[in-house]
Design a protein that fits this description.
By secondary structure, the chain is mainly alpha-helical. It is built from 18 helices and 5 strands. The protein folds into 3 domains: 100 residues; 97 residues, DNA polymerase, domain 1 (Orthogonal Bundle); 173 residues, hpI Integrase, Chain A, CATH 1.10.443. It is flat, with a radius of gyration of 27 Å.
């Protein structure tokens, strides 16, 4: 079965040697059964081949000699010399899982060493989810800042309890951390997340006073930034560039239209399920929102047609409840925001569009800007985008060129 991925007899013979050799063809057949492309399969089998050579060199002549310690040593030593490829660990995970499923190997669970502060950070994450109601991505960011703060404290006071955390300590940490950040927005985020963690410590009685009061404020000028956006003509060119004769293209077209015409967030699209679409009444119910509040958006004719086309003719049959799934192995729902952003980048590059920030949010900004320029009331735009406050939406008035032209004063000494 290796012949499905390799044409060189030398490479095939090489991969059939060593402790993995007797099982490599079955592993290749499994990759093919799961729908891996020839390129992806070659990458995975290539890493397995390197491991086979490494294992034989270190005296592992039989499958019984293969264990997690040997795999970890291979990842750290052999691949480390040539520059670690993040796909290598995934490839070895695929191999070990395959061997375990066929009872060729019985391996103990991978050891995960506990990190300092893990228990406290788990409690903080639970607090952010159940008390503050924050989304997973926001919680991860807050916990990352909290981990840095705790590491600073443990290094500064190795033997001192967290209960003795003082206002002077808070100020010392924030001052040192702010000095390493070059952007006002980053500094604001640091102070905001530090304040949040201090409130959590007080909430759970870990400290006896509200240390959040000791965190200084970083002023970010309101509406200081102008959002990046694309002209509607460019957005239309991107959609038109999709090859809707193939299943992946049918999916991509539906994704782009949801972003461009309805302004859905990346995560909202990834969490869409068929029951969220009300075909009879012509709307989509967005349940997994950033603000944890459901909202209804209209199902336009073009978006509805694209979604129906994907569900009926484009979506592969995979056991996932989400509407949008990967069309290449491993099949399943999108697990990260980058996958949808890559779709936007793909078609932007195809039609020659360049922007400092290519990604899914760019099309959301473009919709908001287009609606503002068409004179749609800010409150209506905020409802479509799911903004809790119209102050968030107000930033798009800075790119309302038609209105700005009307209120612009003539330049002194210029044309009348």
């Amino acid at each position: 079965m290796l012949e499905s991925f390799f044409s060189s007899e030398f490479h095939i013979r090489q991969k059939r040697r060593g402790p993995i050799g007797p099982y490599i063809d079955s592993f290749a057949a499994e990759l093919q059964r799961r729908g891996y492309t020839r390129t992806s399969g070659k990458d995975i089998l290539g890493h397995v081949g390197r491991f086979t050579i490494f294992a034989s060199y270190h005296g592992a002549d039989h499958i019984e000699d293969v264990n997690r310690r040997l795999v970890d040593r291979f990842l750290a030593e052999d691949l480390g010399k040539a520059g670690f490829n993040h796909m290598a660990k995934l490839s070895m995970d695929h191999l070990l899982r395959f061997l375990e499923e066929r009872r060729v190997l019985v391996l103990p669970p991978a050891r995960v060493d506990a990190q300092p502060n893990d228990e406290l950070l788990d409690l903080y994450d639970t607090h952010l989810r159940e008390v503050a109601g924050l989304a997973a991505q926001t919680r991860a960011s807050n916990c990352r800042y909290a981990r840095e703060l705790l590491s600073w404290y443990r290094e500064r006071y190795p033997k001192r309890s967290l209960r003795h955390f003082s206002r002077a300590d808070v100020l010392a940490y924030v001052t040192a951390a702010l000095a390493k950040l070059d952007g006002t927005q980053k500094q604001y985020t640091l102070c905001y997340t530090t304040r949040s963690f201090m409130r959590f410590l007080r909430w759970h009685g870990i400290v006896n006073e509200n240390l959040a009061l000791a965190v200084p404020s970083v002023k970010v000028p309101r509406l200081a930034r102008v959002p990046h956006y694309l002209k509607w003509e460019d957005v239309q060119r991107m959609v038109a560039a999709v090859d809707a004769t193939e299943s992946e293209g049918i999916r991509d077209r539906a994704l782009l239209l949801l972003l461009a015409e309805l302004g859905l967030r990346n995560g909202e699209i990834r969490e869409l399920v068929p029951r969220d679409i009300d075909w009879r009444n012509g709307h989509i119910r967005i349940r997994r929102t950033k603000t944890r509040k459901e909202r209804i958006v209209p199902l336009t004719k073009e978006v509805g047609k694209a979604l129906a086309d994907y569900l009926l003719h484009g979506r592969p049959t995979v056991p996932a409840k989400q509407i949008f799934v990967r069309h290449r192995a491993p099949y399943g729902p999108f697990v990260c925001a980058g996958a949808i952003s890559e779709v936007v980048e793909k078609y932007a590059e195809r039609v020659g569009i360049k922007s400092p920030r290519l990604g899914s949010h760019l099309l959301r900004h473009s919709l908001a800007t287009r609606l503002v320029n068409k004179g749609v009331p800010i409150k209506h735009i905020a409802d479509v985008l799911g903004h809790e406050s119209i102050n968030t939406t107000a930033i798009y008035t800075k790119v309302d060129r038609a209105s700005l032209d009307d209120i612009a004063l003539p330049f002194p000494g210029g044309a009348k």
